[in-house]
Design goal:
The protein has no helices and twelve strands. The protein is an all-beta fold. The protein has two domains: 30 residues, no CATH class; 84 residues, Jelly Rolls.
Length: 125
């Protein structure tokens, strides 16, 4: 697949609870929605999708990638390391996801859990 790319976007709407009611409003300190998008061009144009995979320990399924998307479908929290398992800086509870463009310093993305989790992931090279 030549000339392939992944387009992804994300958004965040900081909110605060009004003390006089049970309604949530846009956070007055931030005052705006935060969002961004990116196009990730893939070197060799290879997409890999893994749906509904159960994990019970650390797994190095994603190596030498330009882009990664991981979603914790259900189960225990999932930890993600971008430095081959030395540090787990991303924690996903059930239903949460993580997506990022990766540079060449990321040798392998390690997905781990302390229990049993079902994950899905998409990666592009």
């Amino acid at each position: 697949m030549a000339n392939e790319k992944i387009k992804y976007s994300n958004g965040c709407s900081p909110q605060e609870l009004d003390s006089t009611s049970a309604r949530w409003y846009q956070d007055s300190d931030v005052g705006t929605k935060l969002s961004g998008s990116a196009n990730v061009s893939m070197g060799s144009g290879t997409l890999t999708y893994q749906s509904s995979k159960e994990i019970t320990s650390a797994e190095s399924a994603l190596s030498s990638k330009d882009f990664v998307f991981v979603r914790n479908i259900s189960g225990s929290d999932v930890k993600i390391s971008l430095d081959n398992g030395s540090n787990y800086l991303v924690l996903l509870s059930a239903g949460e996801s993580f997506a990022s463009e990766l540079d060449s310093s990321v040798a392998a993305v390690i997905i781990s859990t302390d229990g049993t989790s079902t994950v899905e992931y998409l990666s592009g090279t």
